[in-house]
C-alpha cells in the first residue's frame, strides 16, 4: 500500500468569488475557487486545479501577456506570483489590506494594483522588462478620494486609467510628459465599475454602478504625446552649440549678462512651445444609460461587472438581476441579452476574439462560457449551492456521484473533471448516495422521505421508493448484485428494503432503538449480509433475504456514527461517538481491532468558542470511514480539517492529510489570533448593535452551528463530510466544506521499490536488455518499480517473445504487471502493442488470478480499456461522418455540374434551332436583322 497520495484536482466547486480570466489563446478559463485556482480547458474538455493553496480566498487575478505568470491576491492582501509552467508560487508580497484589482500592462513590463485609494505600479519580472526580482515598486499614485475599484492600461502602456468610488476616473502617465500630467474625468453619479481604453487610441469608456456609460474622446493622437526628456535634450544641444569657455579663465560682466539673456530667451521659447503644443485633454462625446434595459424586469438592478473587447468593440455588462447585455460601441447598440438566473453576475470576461463570454455567479457557484453569435453554451458548470453531504465512486472508478444540501445529485467525470448531469428531483437535503454493483444506476436518499434511483446511461429517475408513512431517510445502500436497495430512517428507527426491479417494499427491519446512522451491504457477490449502526450503541448484522427481520446484535461502547465493510466482505469497521474505530468479524461477531483516534483527529477553535481547541476535541469524533481498495488501510474523517489513514492490522496512524489551510473558514486554527483579542475579550464575542437597543447582533445564537440566519452572513466551519476510495486504488475523494478534493497516487515522485536486492540496478537492467535477457530485465524493472524503466523494458521486448516471457513470469509479478499495463494504456500511443500484452497475460494467467487480491488491478485495467474505447469510438464516429459528408458533397457537386452541362447543351440546341430558322427566313426573301 502506497501513501504517496497528493492533491490532484478539485471538483464540485467551479467558482466562488473574484474575477475570471481567459488565457492568451482563449481556449481556457482561469477561475478562483476559494483558496485555490482552477483552469478549465474548454477545447480539450478538461479541468485541473493548481497544486497551490492560499491562507485565504482569492479575490482578484490577472495573467501576463505571455501567459506564463499569474498574479493572484487573496482577501487579506497577500499576493502570489505563480508560474504556470512549474505551477508553483515563485514570490509572495503582502499589501496589508484588501486589493480590488490587478492588471498587467500590454507590454508585460509592469503591473498595477488597486488598494484603498492608491494605485501601486510594480516592475514585472521577465524578459520584457529585463527584471528578475519580483515586486519592485516603480510608481505610487494617490489621486483618488475614495477606494479604487478598477483600472486599465492604454495600448502603449504609457497611460493608466483608474476608476474609484468617488465617481471619478483618474488618468496617470507612467513617465513624465510635456503635454500631459494628471487628468480627472467626472460626469458619473455613482462609483466606477469599469474603465476601458480603445485599441490604438487614448479614447476611453467609463461605466458606473447605476449603468451610466460615458464615451470620452482624446484631443491628441498617441504619436503627439511628448516625453519630458525632450526639453532637457534641447537644452543640452543648445549648451553644446554655444562656444566653450575655459574653466580657469575669468569672465567679464558683459559676458555673464549675455549668457543670462540667452538663458531667459530659452526659457521663454520653452514656455511658448508648451502653450503652442496640444495638451492631452478629454471631451465627453456621448452618455448612455445601460441600466434601462435591465430595469424593465427588475427596478433595482445594479451594474455589478463589465468586460470589453477592444478589437471588436464589444461591451458586456452584468447586473444584479442575473441578466447580461452585449453592446456594440461607441453607439451602444444592443446586440444580445440573456438572463441566466436570479443571482447577480459577479464577474465577466471576453476571450481574445470576442466570440466567447465567461460569466461567473458567486451566489450559486456557477461558471458558464456563452458563444453569443450562435447563442449556445460552450461550457456550463455549477457546483452545489450548499455543502456536499455524500460522495460515491462507480464500480470502474470513472464516475463520481455527489449529493448536497441543496437537494441535487451530480455526476462527475473523473478524467475531465466536469459535471455532465444533474438530478434535481429531491426536494430536501441529500443524506446518502450509493452506486449499484453493475454500474448502471445510482441511488440517493433524502430527508424528503424518498429514495430515488437514476439511470446513468439514459440520465433519468426511473424508480422512486417510498415508505408506508413519511420518514426522513439518513442513509442508503445497494447490494452487490444491484437487485435490492435498503435505507435507514432517523425518526422511526427502522430499515426499509425494496426490490429495484419491481419497486415494491419487501421488508421493514425493526430492532434499532435510535436513529439509524449508517448501513451498508456486503461487497461480496455471494453474500446479502447488511450491517447497520445506530445511536442506540448497537451494531446489527442482517440477512433479510434469508432470515427476514432476525439479526445479530453487537454492543458498542458509544453511539454508532458510521459503518463500512472491508472489500473482502468478512470484516466491518465502526466509528463511534467517543472517537474510536472498532473492527468486527462478521461471522464470529468478535472485535478484531480497536483504534483510538480522537487525538489524531485534531480540532480547531472557532472564533466564537469559549473553550480551547484541546477541550473542544473531547466532543469531536469520526463521522465517515472508508477502506482502501486492498483492505489493508482505512481512511477516517469528521469534524476537523484532517483525514487520517490507519493500518488496520497494526492499528497505527500511517499518515494525516490536512485538507485545507483556508483561514476564510472557521475552526482551522488551533489558537485565536492575538490581534482579535481586546481588553473586553475575543472581538468575535462582542455584540455589535446599532444605536438603539434590539439592533443587529453579530455573534451566533446558542446552539446555532451554521451561523445566525438573521444576519444573512455565516462563516462555514471546515469539515470532512464523506470519504470514498476509488475501486482501482489510484485515488480517493473527500467531500469537504471546500468542495470535492481528489487525492491521487504520485508514483513518479516517490522511489518505492519492491523486493529490491543489491544486484538490481538500472545499469544491470540495461545490460540484460543488451544481452536480450528480457525476462530478467522485466523482473528487475518491476522490482525497481520505476515507470520509465518498466516502459523501456516492455517496449524493448520483440512482439514474438511476449507470450513466452509472460508464461515464464512468476505469479507474484502478475498483479503489478496488470497495473503497469493499465497505466500504459492511458498514456502510451502503442495501443495495439499493450493490448497484445494484456491478452496473453489474461490468457496464460487468467485461471490463477484471484478476484479479491487482484481486483484493484483488474478494475484499473477495465477503466483504461473503457476510456480508450470511448476515445476511439468518438474518433471513428467523427471520421465516419466526415467521410459521409465528403461523399455527399462530391455527389452534390457532380449532380450540380451535370445539371449545368445539360443546361448548356439545351441552350446550345435552342440557339442552333434559332439559327436554322433565321437562315430559312432569309432563303424565303425576308430581310434579316443584319441587313438592316
N-end to C-end Cα span:
107 Å
Structural category is: alpha+beta
Q: Beta-strand level of the residues, as a percent range? A: 35-45%
Mean pLDDT: 83
Report the uncertain regions: 242-250, 707-712, 921-932
Largest β-sheet summary: 4 strands, antiparallel
**Strand line-up in the sheet with most strands:** 1-58-57-56
Q: How would you sum up the global shape?
A: globular
Q: Could you please describe the fold and organization of this structure?
A:
The chain has 932 residues and is α+β, with helices and mostly antiparallel strands. It has 13 helices and 58 strands. The chain has a 4-stranded antiparallel β-sheet with strand order 1-58-57-56, with no helix packed on it. Strands 2-3-4-5 form a 4-stranded antiparallel β-sheet, with no helix packed on it. The protein is globular. The termini are far apart. Residues 242-250, 707-712 and 921-932 have low confidence and may be disordered.
